[in-house]
Amino acid sequence: MLLQIRGILSTVTLLDLVDIVIVAFVLYKLYFAIKDTRAVSLLKGLVVLMFATLVSKWLGLNVINWVLQKTMTVVMVALPVVFQPELRRALEQLGRGKFFSKNGLMNEEEAQKLLEEITRAVTTLSKNKIGALLVFEREIGLNDYIETGMQIDGLVSSEFLANIFIPNTPMHDGAVIIRSNRVMAAGCLLPLTEDRTLNKELGTRHRAAIGISEQTDCMVVVVSEETGTVSYAQGGRLVRYLDGESLKSKLRPFLVRKQMTLTDLLNWRPS
């Protein structure tokens, strides 16, 4: 065994190592290019399908294996169509020189400041009965929806958000999507929920908030234009009639993430 490994290693040249490193780096960057989209879920489904095909062949399940193989053929043909937005985005980033750029992370101090700015902005909008729709990106990326609006990439502030939602302006009726502590886009279009059991009083903003929270793990804050009521949507559920403090308590667990210390790690117990 050792002789075989030594023989294989003896055939590896410096050029082969460079080749492997380049391929690994490109795959790494491709992953980050699609990780903020729904393509990740599709890729997971493809991996499961491939695994099921191999298992069915190993177990001798001929009919199931035949069906899965035909399905895989159809999937491979459909992949360029399914991933068309992601492929286009990757090529655009490559052309703009952004393919190799890094995204910054928000520290705890920035998260606390973001919480204060959001609460202040929502309180102001609520008092003036100005409709607003704020979407906070989490693990599942929202690039597909960011592209439907006007891309901004600006630092979040209460004054900035209040100006975006001024009535009778182009971006007033759309959603603002926030990633970390930056406004990525405004005037974005969101999918509406298909739940027919909702209260008839809920308008398009609330239905869009529930719709996007059903399809992703984002959290959404809604300000009603008619009543000034502040609501919160996550996981397809809507909580209404929030004040400033209750809104803070809802947002804090997601926006202010405590860094785990060595003591926390030693005292950690599985739930």
Tell me about this structure.
- This protein is α+β, with helices and mostly antiparallel strands.
- It has 2 domains: 2-96, no CATH class; 108-255, 3-Layer(aba) Sandwich (YojJ-like (1).
- Helices cover 54% and strands 14% of the residues.
- The protein is built from 11 helices and 7 strands.
- The protein has helices at residues 2-10, 14-34, 39-59, 62-82, 84-96, 108-127, 143-146, 158-164, 204-215, 244-255, 262-267; strands at residues 132-136, 150-155, 175-179, 182-188, 219-223, 230-234, 237-242.
- It has a 7-stranded mixed β-sheet, with helices on both faces.
- Strand 6 (230-234) and strand 7 form a beta hairpin.
- Helix 3 (39-59) runs antiparallel to helix 4 (62-82), helix 6 (108-127) packs across helix 8 and helix 6 (108-127) packs antiparallel against helix 10 (244-255).
- The protein is elongated.
- It starts with a helix and ends with a helix.
- Mean pLDDT is 80; it is low at 101-105 and 258-271.
